[in-house]
Design a protein that fits this description.
CATH superfamily: NAD(P)-binding Rossmann-like Domain
Largest sheet: 7 strands, parallel
Distance between the termini: 36 Å
Helix content: 40-55%
Strand content: 5-15%
Order of helices and strands: EHEHEHEHEHEHE
Number of domains: 1
Structural class: alpha/beta
Number of strands: 7
CATH architecture: 3-Layer(aba) Sandwich
Number of helices: 6
Length: 245
């Protein structure tokens, strides 16, 4: 843990925490003093991450859950509040993608992407928001994508889910800003993670090495949640150096 921890006393829930951006974000928040609640479907990966965080001298709670299911998210909320008693930061990071032309994507692909990316964002935000409203303080982070800012061929459904997240965040900011809650969208381009491997990306592709690292996005999230009281970051757009705007 940093000797100048800025998030001491704060509790952060990180969805999709088992790998990639979520994992890096949980570590970065813990390093800055936050107690982290780790949630995703893979309990073994979450337990491994929690062990790493504990070794840093920080605190982590593991709550495996399918975040597309309302009852699972309610269990996550209940267990979080019963164990740690508060939530100051919610990082909506759970996400999936399958690339392909529209005619190559089926209804099941649409449901998988929309439910994982947008439904989980809606469910988690809706269930943790009342506590933030009560304490008149909180950060809601939505990890979207540059695919939520501009449509791209072979990403019709994925772009739709990410545009939905951006619109959701914009509307939510209007609703909660006056209650002391800050909403931020993080919109990265290519990130070298397990994301979309086998559903559009190929393991070992040399282009992956040119992409940003998950830790780069995690640092942007930490930046967003450590703003002074009178400042909020609504959107951070990020691109690796090898991608054009």
């Amino acid at each position: 843990m940093s000797s100048e921890a800025r998030l001491t006393g704060k509790v952060a829930v990180v969805t999709g925490a088992s790998r990639g951006i979520g994992r890096a974000t949980a570590i970065a928040l813990a390093r800055d003093g936050a107690q982290v609640v780790l949630t995703a479907r893979n309990q073994a990966d979450l337990e491994s991450l929690a062990g790493e965080i504990h070794a840093m001298g920080a605190s982590a709670l593991v709550v495996p859950a399918d975040l597309t299911e309302a009852m699972e998210v309610e269990r996550l909320r209940h267990q979080t509040m019963a164990t740690v008693g508060r939530v100051d930061i919610l990082v909506n990071n759970a996400g999936v993608s399958k690339y392909g032309s529209l005619m190559e994507l089926g209804i099941e692909d649409y449901d998988w992407m929309m439910n994982t990316n947008m439904r989980s964002t809606f469910l988690c935000t809706r269930l943790f928001l009342p506590h933030m409203l009560e304490q008149r303080d909180g950060y809601i982070i939505i990890v979207s994508s540059v695919a939520g800012l501009r449509g791209t061929a072979r990403e019709t459904v994925y772009c739709a889910t990410k545009f939905a997240q951006v619109g959701f965040a914009q509307a939510l900011d209007h609703e909660v800003r006056e209650h002391g809650i800050k909403v931020s969208v993080i919109a990265p381009g290519g990130v070298n993670t397990y994301f979309a491997l086998g559903t559009g990306r190929t393991p070992g592709d040399p282009n992956l090495e040119k992409m940003m690292e998950a830790e780069d996005v995690a640092e942007a999230i930490v930046f967003a949640v450590t703003q002074p009281p009178k400042s909020r970051i609504f959107m951070i757009g990020m691109r690796p150096m090898n991608e054009t705007l």
